[in-house]
Hints:
By secondary structure, this protein is α/β, with parallel strands linked by helices. It has helices at 2-16, 18-30, 64-68, 100-115, 150-160, 162-166, 193-198, 234-237, 248-263, 278-290, 301-305, and strands at 49-53, 71-81, 84-87, 140-146, 172-174, 177-179, 183-189, 205-206, 208-209, 229-233, 267-271, 296-298. Helix 7 (193-198) links the parallel strand 7 and strand 8 (205-206). The longest helix is centred in the middle third of the chain and has 16 residues, at 100-115. InterPro entries: HAT_RTT109-like, PLC-like_Pdiesterase_TIM-brl.
Amino acid sequence: MMYSLFLASVLPLLVAGKATIDSQIAALEASNSPILQYPTQLTQNLVPKAIHSHNDYWRDVPLLTAISLGVASVEADVWHMNGTLFIGHELAALTPNRTLDSVYIQPLLKILGEENPIDQFTVNSTTPNGVFDTASDVPLQLLVDVKTDGVEALPFILQAFEPLRQGGYLTTFANGTLTLSAVTVVGTGNSPLEQVKELSPRDYFFDAPLTQLTDPSLNTTWDPTLSPLASTDYGTAVGWSGIGNISAEQLANITQFVGDAHERGIKARFWDTPGWPIHARTAVWRVLLENGADWLNADDLEAAANF
Ligand SMILES: *[C@@H]1O[C@H](CO)[C@@H](O)[C@H](O)[C@H]1NC(C)=O
Ligand SMILES: *[C@@H]1O[C@H](CO)[C@@H](O)[C@H](O)[C@H]1NC(C)=O
Ligand SMILES: *[C@@H]1O[C@H](CO)[C@@H](O)[C@H](O)[C@H]1NC(C)=O
Ligand SMILES: *[C@@H]1O[C@H](CO)[C@@H](O)[C@H](O)[C@H]1NC(C)=O
Ligand SMILES: *[C@@H]1O[C@H](CO)[C@@H](O)[C@H](O)[C@H]1NC(C)=O
Ligand SMILES: *[C@@H]1O[C@H](CO)[C@@H](O)[C@H](O)[C@H]1NC(C)=O
Ligand SMILES: *[C@@H]1O[C@H](CO)[C@@H](O)[C@H](O)[C@H]1NC(C)=O
């Protein structure tokens, strides 16, 4: 029954040929027909990619530009002043209207609200969808790069995330279990390691030092319940310009640091990779990915997404 109905509707199109099909598709697309609409289509067709949007807040439209390209990690520089969390690269770039709440948290709440409609089909759902419609179980990683005193800023940052916490949208480590959710928040910059360790439950994680995971003087057992991510400055850890051949020592450093992270179930990221010339940038990205680096750190998101 269903099958013959299907044939009856499709056969004439097949017979009439491609031009007719295209015009039918165009007519349907223009029709606003409800069969073409679904609640979570905001991010339909976007395949999430392991790209980190370096200095995301610099983009004309922070957060959404990254999400629109399927970029699954963004970074916000946060300045704590008098209890308010401003967003910007330097003091001169701060404005009263650009805060952690207005630039990241409210837009995320809106997107996640659209990806998580509450209706008769979702009443029994226990885990929320993430921002990517094609891969709703992939969390968005949000790096909070604290620029001011970390111990002072942390309580305000944790408070700022309360709306996402209330929605059940934050990846959380509690009672010995790490539960992934729509957004994984990772503190970097001046984020205070000892205070992050003490959080229980923990929904603010710590960007581990990728070159020091085996260093006993840090008194820390690095694992994904504390640090889902470990990062290092590409220039000092590797340094290859992307032109000519990479040296054996440089390559050995990449594999050693990536191996140290993967042994612990942690993802590896090298930041400040060369941006120019383009062929050098691409050569570095390729060597990093071929040797297991998990996140491409990118300023040019479109180039990285099409890489
Ligand atoms: C912080 O508060 C002090 C004292 O009230 C004030 O002088 C200063 O302008 C405030 N700074 C910001 C960034 O609002
Ligand atoms: C910016 O913030 C000021 C006060 O902090 C407010 O009066 C104004 O409406 C805001 N502007 C925009 C565009 O949101
Ligand atoms: C939700 O759970 C109830 C009770 O188990 C069940 O009757 C109902 O069919 C479920 N709804 C969906 C959409 O799965
Ligand atoms: C952790 O365990 C406590 C006590 O059993 C419980 O109240 C709490 O809800 C649990 N937290 C989570 C996030 O599961
Ligand atoms: C590690 O522990 C030792 C002994 O308790 C202490 O002296 C040292 O300062 C600690 N190192 C760090 C980085 O906290
Ligand atoms: C390898 O990594 C170590 C530790 O970070 C660094 O001191 C050394 O300079 C690196 N070697 C190269 C060739 O970059
Ligand atoms: C670079 O590596 C290639 C392949 O291993 C080799 O043929 C070439 O001679 C190397 N170039 C230099 C400048 O070492």
